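Researcher: Go.
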Amino acid sequence: MAEKVQAQHRSDKEGFFEQIFTQYSDYVYRLAVAVLGDQAEAEDAVQEVFLRVYRALEHYDPQKAGLSTWLYQITLNYCRSRLRWRRVRAVFQQKVKEEVARPDTVPTPHPEEQVLQSELRQIIWQGINKLKEGYRLVLILHYYMDMPASEIATVLQIPEGTVYSRLHNARRRLREYLKRQGISSDEL
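Model: Structure:
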């Protein structure tokens, strides 16, 4: 299978690239939105990530990582450099707050319940944004992107045990934050 992928992307780079873009652009976008917290910036990230993918396609080695893992790694590296470049974590937090504050696309039967859910989501995101980057990223990748720990380990280039440890500590710290905000586990 790996030889077939390598042969395919050597012989038909454009076709293979188009297939990758079609299959993974939504996933890259979702990850970029989750990390950057801004839809417009995430759209730019998708373009930049796939430009980098196109340039590096002949260097992709399926023996080292799966295609989706490789793409997530490129995406995360781009997003990290983007966050460092902005050097304004407060802007990132503000963008997440704005995103969370938008009304739900699926209305709930009771407006009061909708407001409470929106407030709860906002408090949860505030708690997530207060976490160190390592904890925040594993939570986003695991819960928002539905990645298994093994893939998160590959993407973040850390041992799988570290992923589990960070997930455990991130959940504990988030629970403590929510408790300080007066939110019990039952309300989640």
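Model: The CA atoms of residues 36 and 79 lie 7 Å apart.
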